[in-house]
């Protein structure tokens, strides 16, 4: 009988094509919106992850205690060894060593005397090894105002506002005055490669970004890093996964009381991100629920309409002696096929569009004054496992319920009445 | 001979007044410790949370006004030079080939990570010019009899409102100094030891500086070799000499 | 027209469940769009109000050298409070604040700290400055909860701070934490302690001087004062506008999809009703209706969904939205590390403009979507239609 019904559906396009299309569009929207909401709401998390917390962060225990101070004297040592170990233990996660530091940027005049000076916040990022993809991650290219990205050792990016204050231009040389890991005075020359905009006043005032190897040399931090930031393989934060990894890693140091042993923290264990992560879960579920309910109503309606369209046909079938029960059952079966077909097609399209949006994003920078690093200028979707089955609720269930309700009419009306409707 | 006279003089004053005046003691400390110029090699050991580091340097100085220091080790600091002229301070770093003047708030930074700030090194006014000193008694310290002096600022542009000084009553070497905030809170303490006689002067070879508000073991400053009253070429004390 | 409306209404209600499903979905669109937009507006309001309440009042005068991001400027950024403000200050409508860079030593660790002198009796800021008004041996101080956590101190703890007076002389004393406050404006508490203004002035020998003057009234025209830079409220809250812009852009996509969904339903309904009611259409034409009038009839019928939806939305939306406006929506956005003012709970604010524009947009799109399939009617052959032939 299934084959018979399928044949009917395939041959009568008005019975299959339109309903499947409607269901597919509905499911597609649901899947897409869910991915979009997850991406959009998770944006703040990813922004924080990229800039300060990572999905995971490894520090020394002592550094973790005083994280707000960015105490480089408590930095991790032998980072490459630790990084190898992490790569082996947790394949797929990308680790990026970072050093934050403070200092002064001193601009020389042509005699080498100080011409301008200003306090700076510094970030040493792994820009040149090609292993950590920091350039991409922070979308530095987009926020570049003048000049180029860092291409070789000894180059630095500074915030545009800072460059104006110091009156320096790409190509100029400046000296960083800071203190080494042990507190000695450190001086190091950088050539300005370009200027960037962050979009946060505190950073735009005076920030310098350089390759971590330069910072290590400058601050006497050979193979050291303040923090080792980890990003999960698919590039999105997953709290359960992150907590599992964190537990695994920390178990290896559970017995040690050395305050310079490494400790790992998930994003949700830093600052007040934990609160945000849990609220995000609840709220994206909420918004998705509203949407799924709305979608279910629409598809229910579609199922209802699909049933109504065919009252005439039912009349004929009943007249020919088919039992009401049988007509009703075939109607439900058909709607199941339509629901499944629509859900599969819709989910596929929804995932396809979501994947596009995840990869390329919607550029909203046109709506804002200039691109900057701290403000997301691109909205991205994020596909989560839920997207693979979420479409079933409106796609299959609502469609079937719709048909069931529409089919009630078969029982309510007399055969002759249904038959008459065929004319309509 | 000088020592003899010093001791003799001390004896006399002690005998005649029972207790010397504070200014007189400071005067004698000055006479004992200062010289027209000096050249010394020293080491500074900084006890960090993780490790201890020792930095060695060679310093040429004339009076309190001019000083030129060249760092000898570790390799990272080697070649770093520091020039102080009156109340100005420049640092030259060979890796950047830049000479930077340390001024304003930068003076408040610690010297090479120690408990000493650049500013602590900079104040070269005589104690008697900036403080009113009184002897408040005598105490025994590391087996030596000392005069305990209390100094109160008489000008308001000094960093420390008051100081306490323990001076060896025979050798006129300070054995301990404490620096106080206006509120009377103890801020820093230096303890001198290894007092030896060099070219007729008594000199503490080891000084431990400690920031009393901060945890840690402080900074140990040791004289490895010291010479007084040498021929010093004047060009050493010029900014040009930093780059050489 | 009246008949058309009546007819449309009857037809709609007659369709029963189908209509109501559409109406409910559409009403969702109304409520959700108004609510989400309201949250954003509320966020904007809240962030600005919080900033005003905790940090900037109705605007400020900064000493011309003052740069909050460069503590090294603090030593040169103070001067006597201008004579012309004395009465305003006496009335409590302007508060001077002195800002000094110092060092704090919690448990022997050394950390830089910004010491802010504030009048304990002030009521421009929500800071619990009344807790500074106590007699203790140590200097009473209040501190933010995040700062307290970072320094690992709590109410009742004594901590040593060190500072230098205006001549550079060191001074140190103990402060006692008499209050820990929590606020949504990270800049207010990050690395700062608050002590009584007069105490700080005497500590650093800057009697009668200030770094920041905060006034209560944001409306009043403010003159330029020598040595002081006027920072109006709008300038100080600029960063909030930027974040809101981003969020608005992100949400519009969501509204779009939500509307699309509702329109899918309307469209489907319209197509079906035109398909099933060809006989009726034929009859209208036979009765002398022009085709345009028939198209109009069907369009009105479709568009009426949105009117009904507005009514339904009002029925459950008004109580919901009102409750939200009162109870708030909790959503902490942690951009706080970088100094953004964001509240934990947002109270949506719905303006008339917001509601009218939302209703307008929904009704307009519904009408367009209803009209679209109805155009088919214009192409129909009336006789065929009258006979109920499928076309």
From TrEMBL, chain A:
Subcellular location as annotated: Cell membrane
Segments passing through the bilayer: 20-42, 283-309, 330-357, 388-411
InterPro entries: ABC3_permease_C, Lipoprotein-release_system
Superkingdom of the organism of origin: Bacteria
Coarse class of the protein's main subcellular location: membrane
Membrane topology (UniProt): Multi-pass membrane protein
Record's keyword terms, sorted: Cell membrane, Membrane, Transmembrane, Transmembrane helix
Segments forming domain ABC3 transporter permease C-terminal: 287-413
GO BP, sorted A to Z: lipoprotein localization to outer membrane
Coiled-coil residue windows: none
Organism listed in the record: Mariniphaga sediminis
Family named by the database record: Belongs to the ABC-4 integral membrane protein family. LolC/E subfamily.
Designated name of the protein: ABC3 transporter permease C-terminal domain-containing protein
Signal peptide bounds: none
High-level lineage: Bacteria, Pseudomonadati, Bacteroidota, Bacteroidia, Marinilabiliales
A GO term from the CC aspect: plasma membrane protein complex
UniProtKB/TrEMBL annotation, chain B:
Family annotation (Gene3D superfamilies): Lipoprotein localisation LolA/LolB/LppX
Origin: domain of life: Bacteria
Tagged with keyword Transport: no
Keyword annotations of the record: Lipoprotein
Alphabetical list of InterPro entries matching this protein: Sporulation_related, TP_0789-like
Keyword Lyase: no
Segments forming domain Uncharacterized protein TP-0789: 63-244
PANTHER family reported for this sequence: SPORULATION PROTEIN YDCC
Name of this protein: Outer membrane lipoprotein-sorting protein
TrEMBL record, chain C:
Subcellular location field: Cell membrane
Pfam families in alphabetical order: FtsX
GO cellular component, one term: plasma membrane
Coiled coil: none
Domain ABC3 transporter permease C-terminal: residue ranges: 253-382
Keywords attached to this entry: Cell membrane, Membrane, Transmembrane, Transmembrane helix
Listed transmembrane segments: 20-43, 253-275, 295-323, 349-372
Keyword Nucleotide-binding belongs to the record: no
Any one GO molecular-function label of the UniProt entry: transmembrane transporter activity
Keyword Transmembrane: yes
InterPro entries (UniProt xref): ABC3_permease_C, Macrolide_Exporter_MacB
Topology term for the membrane: Multi-pass membrane protein
Family: Belongs to the ABC-4 integral membrane protein family.
Protein name: ABC transporter permease
Species: Mariniphaga sediminis
